[in-house]
Amino acid sequence: MNQFRQPSETGRKITLILLWILFSFALPFCDPPDSTELVVKNNLSEGSIAAINLLVPGRRQLTSVFLSPPIAPGCADTVAVPYMYFNRIIFTADNGNYYRLNGYAPVGDPAEITVSLAVKEFGGSFDRIFGSYPMIIRNSTPIAFNSVLFSGDSLPQGNLLGGQILMPDEVLRVWLDSGTTAEIFATDVSGAVSSVLTGIALPVDTVLSFTPEQFYHNGTVFGSENGGSGSWVVNCIPDQQIVLVEAFDNQGYFLKEIDCSSSPLQTWDRVFLPHWSPISYIMCTDQNERTYSLMDPDSVSGNYLFDLLSLDFGFGFPE
Are residues 268 and 298 in the same domain? Predict the structure, then answer.
């Protein structure tokens, strides 16, 4: 018979409470250090780590870590960092690549951290560091961006995304000197260029959003409301042409169609679909006879924004 029984759930809770009480009494007499040592190992096959920046809780400004010289591949260096939890650690390589760790606290004496391909930035959000204050740029369109650029000689030049793609709802944080004003434009994967947005780098989470309205000038408008009832349908499908637009009621009965085959809707083209009865969904057909369906319009603009996510998938198997 096993003499060592597992403690009950109540016993575990009592133990945790006693440890918390003990820690609370001991904490005033054990002040943590202001800083600690962190060993940074470069496990990359190429690219030296040239800069380390920290984002700590309660601050919108980056904290730079002193690093000299850069940490070459296969090498390590010891740096001094604040003794605290970090929301994000951002490593910049001299070849322009960025690596990051989210949610990190130094543990160990000294603490160690390894920079490898496993922590290379990939999707969700991206950082580009030229200063300490953020300018946050969001892709609020249904189409991915392959470039984001500044307009002006005094600002960082070239594509800020590098070789990355900024997918819908993803953000690009460009860190600049405080108070820097910049004009920004983006190019989507279909080659359409946005209108210009103007932003300023401040220690607050101010978000500049590229919306479909910034790209509508690339397309052609077909039809008009003229005070009538209906819906705007927008082609947000990269490099695909819409040749037919159809509206259906909640019973699935056909209500209205627009045949666009003689002048297909290109990316960012819009057409007005007049209808007087409530509709359940709108279906579009592209030049390859693929169909796309939407039940609801965009919550902001009220337009039906057809994109790749609205593609109707068939899950049947060939006989």
Answer: yes
Is residue 11 domain-resident?
Answer: no
- The answer to whether position 16 is within a domain reads no
Do 226 and 287 reside in the same domain of the chain? yes
The pLDDT value recorded for residue 22 is: 55
| Amino acid identity at 111 | A
- 164 CB contacts (<8 Å, ≥6 apart)? 121, 122, 126
pLDDT at residue 168 tops 80:
yes
Q: Specify the CATH number for the domain of residue 113.
A: 2.60.40.2890
| Same domain, yes or no: 203 and 163 | yes
Number of CB atoms found within 10 A of residue 308's CB: 14
pTM: predicted TM-score of the whole model, two decimal places: 0.82
Number of domains in the chain: 3
Q: For 107-141, what is each residue's pLDDT tens digit?
A: 887 899 999 999 998 888 899 999 999 999 999 99
Cα–Cα distance, 112 to 108 (Å, whole number): 7
Bridge partners, residue 172, by sequence: 126, 137
Does pLDDT of 264 surpass 70?
yes
How do strand 254-259 and strand 76-82 relate by DSSP bridges?
unpaired
Q: How confident is the model at residue 261 (pLDDT cuts 50, 70, 90)?
A: very high
Count CB atoms within 10 A of the CB of residue 76.
Answer: 16
Question: Residue 187: how many CA atoms within 13 Å on its side-chain side?
Answer: 13
